[in-house]
Write a structure and sequence with these properties.
Length: 173
């Protein structure tokens, strides 16, 4: 970045020079992550006096690319640990079936060939924290006791939830 960057005086403090600076320990909000670490070598135009950051289009693209990569790494790490914990209490293929995943998908995640979505990462993390919830998912997907057209579902009441009522959309079909 420093090769094409033209230094300027900071408009915030009026004293410092704004130049590209790398730094340690910088973090930013990114999508569903409240804080992700920026690479130490990523240069961001920064005032030498007040420390204000100046973001141009090129800088924002660099930050976005770095945070996107870091988010993928974090999602992969969380998912790998969660899968490792979950396969202690269930078979991986059974887990894929319960979560409606393609056979072999979790193996690809474990070996870094696929990066799971944020929602799948969250689900795996929550299930790893309470593996007993896998049985609840089995009951949830059970069609026994689920009546269409507004009748109460015994499957959901066994989960401790209020009876589920499926709208009359089915009757209209």
């Amino acid at each position: 970045m420093s090769e094409t960057f033209e230094m300027f005086t900071c408009a915030t403090c009026g004293r410092g020079d704004v130049t590209p600076m790398a730094g340690k320990g910088r973090e930013m909000l990114y999508r569903n992550f409240p804080s992700l670490a920026l690479p130490d070598d990523l240069e961001i135009p920064t005032c030498s006096t007040c420390g204000d950051h100046w973001f141009d289009h090129k800088t924002l693209e660099s930050i976005d690319a770095a945070l996107k990569l870091r988010a993928r790494e974090v999602r992969s790490a969380i998912s790998k640990m969660s899968i490792q914990l979950l396969v202690e209490s269930t078979h991986q293929r059974e887990l894929e079936g319960l979560l409606d995943l393609s056979p072999g998908y979790l193996s690809k995640v474990k070996h870094g060939q696929e990066t799971p979505s944020a929602s799948l990462t969250a689900l795996l993390g929550l299930l790893a924290a309470r593996p007993g919830r896998l049985r609840e998912i089995e009951r949830l997907w059970s069609t026994r006791g689920v009546a269409l057209g507004g009748a109460a579902s015994t499957s959901f009441t066994s989960l401790g939830a209020p009876p589920l009522r499926i709208p009359e959309l089915v009757e209209a079909a």
